[in-house]
Specification:
The chain starts with 25 loop residues before the first strand and ends in a 22-residue tail after the last helix. By secondary structure, it is mainly beta. It is built from four helices and 58 strands. Helices cover 4% and strands 38% of the residues. The protein has a 15-stranded parallel beta sheet that branches. Strands 3-6-24-27-31-34-37-40-43-46-49-52-55-56 form a 14-stranded parallel beta sheet, with no helix packed on it. Residues 407-567 form the Right handed beta helix domain. This is Right-handed parallel beta-helix repeat-containing protein. InterPro entries: Beta_helix, PbH1, Pectin_lyas_fold, Pectin_lyase_fold/virulence.
Length: 680
């Protein structure tokens, strides 16, 4: 999508005492020079060069119109993050960084790698440090697909934990031990002598437990006893490793056994088993040069926000990550993981028509005090953590007049897929301590945890996540092999004015429990869930506990374990449930305490395609109604079908009118059909 107002004014950086010429744009080329004037004929070489030129002109007071910087086609290698601060703010005149016409512009945090020795079965090369870069890395990228560090078992398979023994070294003052030795016992037949695990490699264990993920370097692996040992912080009492947990072990040489796997030894020799496409030629390999690409930061204390900067048509690709020696502790939604592009203390920042791909951290974070900024028409794929985050995960000095909660941001018309590649508990989009944001018309798919998460307060304490709108998103195919306790849309805490509406959610699964289309977790209150279509999930709707939520005019259909659940019984009204369609295929309508909790339930339509003697909790329908539930609701046959978008729909105006159900228009759900990059 083009900018509504064409930004065509740019500046030439001239020698001292020469006159600034307006009416031309800045240009950047991989073959340019940052000492050039930035003209079409003499372009700059880098983003930093263009930024510095604009700073120079601002400092001289010679910027009096909008500025456009156009990048010519090429791969721009970053060896560190490029920072923008208050000196770069377009306070009065906007700044655009864009690809030139339709040329392919890649901002890349990696350099190309060439293998020295090649045969049909194994390639290898020695890695030498380049320009001060470390020779050790944990990611390898290829231009035509994905390759993976050697692990066992291969693919999506996981080993099962048999037993866990924790020996606390230092408890400290927390419920979580400061340090402990932990032994994971497993079936000793999983690893043979040829699969010897050597601490000097160093191998790491990747554990999946409930909604969390933990990574630790192993100190020892005893093949004969089936014991894997590691050290670090102790287990969280509320989410321990146990015999329900699963794991794999990564980064040991004997696990190198499948095409597309690689291993980097401690003496800096890279081994790789080639794929068919590698043997045919055309594959290009890259190793990381930096973990981050862009950082925009204003001065929050003085309320001086960086303003009016746009990135358009840029591809942000291939950045690295090195796990600390202490490993990665479990953290819900991978909320603590940094992003490749981070914005703090800024206003009117726009990312439009950009690609974010093969990034080892999260992609984009509107973090502290970011307002009225936008991400639209972008594609996010193969992201290490969360694609887009809004707001900070901590709120400090809330009485400080300089503290601005991130608010009024828009994330719209983006495709987000294959996220959580390194941090599986990551989400597609997360809103933390942030208000009045709009998340609309995005398609989110193929991840391991939650699609959209809103809120960051557990229980009924004050929350800043108010007035957020999650509207018209298409969320589907959450992989249930890894984690539990997740949802298509997940909410936390008191959230006055928050609306979850007109979303289509299907095929949300979990490994053991959960997998809800809509999940109102701890303290979720004053939220409206309306006009959503939820089907083929493990379950439709779950409210852990909360106050005065409204669940209205939704379709919960053909979910696999049950349709609706409430966990905690509370003295107040938990929710109002009205004018919904509940369509089952032989599984229970209700689970947990739905029949006991305080609910105002009426004007709903229930049907089961298999069961004729329908139960509402332990009651038949008449006894259920005699208790004041669903007095005007119906149990009647209704037919479901699918429209051209493969969205579930129900057409029966007579019955729908009886319960006051308004037909849900699905034409504006998901990304605009005009986008050629829309997924199947």
């Amino acid at each position: 999508m083009k900018l509504n107002i064409k930004i065509v004014i740019a500046l030439l950086l001239c020698v001292a005492n020469s006159k600034i010429i307006f009416g031309k744009d800045f240009y950047v080329s991989v073959n340019g020079d940052d000492k050039n004037t930035g003209s079409f004929e003499k372009p700059f070489k880098s983003l930093e060069g263009a930024r510095n030129a604009i700073r120079f002109l601002r400092n001289k007071g010679e910027v009096n119109e909008d500025i456009a910087v156009y990048f010519r086609e090429g791969i721009y290698i970053f060896r560190r993050s490029v920072e923008f601060d208050i000196r770069d703010s377009g306070d009065e005149h906007k700044v655009l960084f864009s690809n030139y016409e339709n040329e392919k512009v890649e901002f890349v945090g990696a350099r190309e790698l060439f293998f020295e020795k090649k045969d049909m079965k194994l390639w290898q090369t020695h890695i030498a440090a380049s320009s001060g870069e470390p020779s050790y890395f944990e990611q390898l990228f290829v231009n035509n697909g994905n390759v993976y560090r050697a692990k066992s078992p291969n693919g999506d398979e996981l080993y099962r934990v048999d037993k866990v023994v924790q020996k606390v070294i230092n408890q400290g003052n927390s419920r979580i031990p400061l340090s402990a030795n932990i032994s994971i016992f497993h079936d000793e037949s999983l690893f043979s002598e040829k699969d010897s695990i050597k601490a000097h490699e160093p191998p790491l264990i990747v554990l999946f437990h409930k909604w969390d993920n933990t990574k630790r370097y192993l100190t020892e692996g005893k093949i004969e006893s089936g014991e894997l040992l590691f050290q670090g912080k102790g287990m969280k009492p509320w989410n321990k490793f146990d015999d329900h947990s699963r794991f794999y072990v990564e980064n040991f040489f004997s696990a190198l056994d499948s095409p597309g796997e690689w291993f980097l030894s401690q003496d800096n020799v890279l081994y790789y088993i080639p794929r068919k496409e590698d043997l045919n030629g055309g594959s290009k390999f890259y190793i990381p040069t930096t973990d981050k690409l862009i950082y925009i930061k204003g001065d929050c204390k003085s309320k001086r926000l960086v303003q009016n900067i746009t990135f358009e048509g840029i591809e942000f690709k291939m950045t690295g990550y090195k796990m600390p020696d202490t490993g990665n502790d479990p953290f819900q939604a991978a909320a603590n993981i940094d992003a490749v592009v981070t914005v703090d203390c800024a206003e009117n920042i726009l990312f439009n028509r950009c690609l974010f791909s093969k990034l080892s951290l999260g992609a984009l974070w509107f973090r502290t005090s970011v307002v009225k900024s936008e991400v639209k028409n972008c594609l996010f794929e193969n992201i290490g953590a969360t694609a887009v985050k809004i707001g900070n995960i901590s709120v400090t000095n809330t009485n400080d007049p300089g503290n601005i909660i991130s608010n009024k941001n828009i994330i719209s018309n983006n495709i987000i897929r294959n996220v959580g590649e390194l941090f599986p508990s990551a989400t597609g989009i997360s809103i933390f301590h942030s208000s009045d944001n709009i998340i609309q018309k995005n398609e989110i798919s193929n991840l391991k945890y939650t699609g959209i998460s809103v809120g960051w307060v557990w229980g009924y304490k004050d929350s800043k996540a108010r007035g957020n709108k999650v509207i018209g998103n298409y969320i589907h195919n959450i992989n249930g092999k890894y984690l539990s306790d997740l949802g298509g849309v997940y909410t936390l805490g008191t959230s006055e004015g928050t609306v979850i509406s007109n979303n289509v959610i299907h095929d949300v699964e979990s490994r053991e429990y959960g997998g809800w289309g809509l999940y109102a977790d701890e303290g979720s209150s004053y939220i409206t869930f309306k006009n959503n279509i939820v089907y083929n999930c493990f379950a439709g709707f779950h409210q852990h506990y909360g106050k005065e939520n409204i669940v209205e005019n939704n379709i919960f259909a053909l979910n696999k374990k049950y349709q609706l659940k409430i966990t905690r019984i509370e003295p107040h009204n938990s929710l109002t449930f009205k004018s919904n369609i509940i369509y089952s295929n032989g599984v229970d309508f209700f689970e947990g305490n739905w029949s006991k909790a305080k609910i105002k339930s009426d004007n709903n339509l229930y049907w089961d395609t298999i069961e004729s003697n329908l139960l509402f909790g332990d009651d038949d329908f008449e006894n259920w109604k005699s208790k004041g539930r669903d007095t005007n609701s119906l149990v009647e046959y209704i037919k479901v079908s699918y429209n051209e978008e493969k969205f579930l729909k129900i057409n029966n105006k007579r019955l729908l009118n009886k319960i006051g159900f308004k037909t849900i228009d699905t034409r504006n759900i998901g990304v605009d059909s005009s986008n050629k990059w829309k997924t199947n």
